[in-house]
Design brief:
Largest sheet: none
CATH architecture: Orthogonal Bundle
CATH topology: Transferase(Phosphotransferase), domain 1
CATH superfamily: Transferase(Phosphotransferase) domain 1
Helix content: 40-55%
Distance between the termini: 42 Å
Number of domains: 1
CATH class: Mainly Alpha
Length: about 100
């Protein structure tokens, strides 16, 4: 990888992983989880909807459900298998600012 350009969509994927870590309270790799990869664990739960299944349990009920669900959707888009299907970081910023300003 030394001397090679890293594709911009890789940054988007990394952002999605960090966002998932913040939302779930889990690390990107955890051998105590099944599956141990956070993205593989979170993706089916995020697709189903409901925040309660994947939100960090330390938060209890102290989070805005709608905003948290929207952040989960953004994370899911950001970690899409296909780099072409991932949004740009500009689009991610617009999505986040759109619902933050809307609150």
């Amino acid at each position: 990888m030394a001397g090679q350009r890293i594709p911009l969509k890789t940054d988007v994927y990394s952002f999605g992983v960090v966002l998932l870590e913040l939302l779930t309270g889990r690390t990107s790799w955890d051998v105590t989880m099944d599956p141990p990869v956070l993205v593989l664990w979170a993706t089916p739960l995020l697709r189903k909807g409901g925040v309660e299944q994947w939100i960090d349990p330390k938060l209890g009920t102290q989070y805005p459900a709608a905003g948290t669900l929207e952040l989960g959707r953004i994370a899911l888009q950001s970690v899409h298998d296909s780099p072409r299907s991932r949004p740009t970081m500009g689009a991610v910023a617009q999505l986040i600012s759109g619902f933050v300003v809307g609150d």
